[in-house]
Amino acid sequence: MKTTSDYQLKPVRVVILKQSLDGQPFWPIPDPLPPTIDAYCEFSLESPIKYYVFRLPGRHNITRGDLLINAPSMIGDSHWVYCSWCYLIEYVSVDNTSHVVVAKQISCYDVVKLPDRIYLTNDDFIKLHKPNPIDNLDAFIASLTIRETFNPHPRFAILKQLSDSPPFWPIPNPLFLKECAHLVWKSMYYHLFCLLGQHNISRHDLLIDRKLYYYLVKQVSVRETSCFVFAEPVDVVELHDKIYLEKDFIQLHKPKPIDDLAEFVASLTIGDVFADQWPPEHKHANIYIFRDEDVILYVGSSTNVYNRVRAHIGIKMRNSGNFKLYVLIKNNLPDSRSWNIDLYRVKSTNVGDLVRGEMKIIQRLCPIINVHGNPCPMPLSTRYKYKWLDE
Description:
Thrombin, subunit H; GIY-YIG endonuclease; 6-stranded antiparallel barrel
């Protein structure tokens, strides 16, 4: 409904793009562009997928499946992928003087913006161009009609695996000089970089930028004055002298069974604890283990597991819980709600036996957070948010 403040809002300048008439899965960008329209945003829904309600004064040829793009003057500029937004129209309501449009916001990760067309990344472009990996990297680069100017550039250190192919990259001391790279194209899962000059870089090398983001090289195309690197962002575990892919590290360091040390009682998730949905067997437990699949986060013991676990995740008696575990869980919500809490029982009720049993389990599992009695804590993967490590 209209309100008195409708037209006090700053309008978004948009153009309407229609999908190609021959049924191809992209929106062609005509030259010259259609007229720019003032779209007044009346409402936005804050959710993982953002929906907007726009009012477009006047009559327009607009239907479901059309695309609204703002900052149309940026088209053709090397930075326009970051300087404009796309809105995919889901619903249109027409009255005598305007259109009301419900549209889904499409982020720069979900579209590929070429100078003459726009693709949806997941649904269309990846299927058409097969970048998993790209069959012909040179043809793919040519299809992007790359210009001499590129998007803002990171600086990369390039790491190589040893000749005997162990599942890690050694970190030299000092670290190699970082090479300047330009981001040419990216999707949700892949990045294409251009490194000026000649470089000794090949498939399976690892790129590290100054923000400690990691990219695994999938393909390389070498030119006279540059090389193009097609890479996949990866999660890693970084030790002081080497870097593992997280999946390789977990495979090598899978936790050993503890059946000989304690009796399994039950398992629940952190989400179950928040909902206060405990298995009835929990009353028999005195050991608890926080884990995310095969990643062991924390091992603890208590004669009252119910209160102790609740304290760890910040319910009521938070000060009596482990602060680092609490912050790790909080920083990784909502994903951390699916992490498991396994409950075990050391048969002896003697407090000394309980503590000794806990120490033996810590020594065997090497959890991330436990310090006391932990000979070699497992490093935390880069995929976790962990601000407490910098404090």
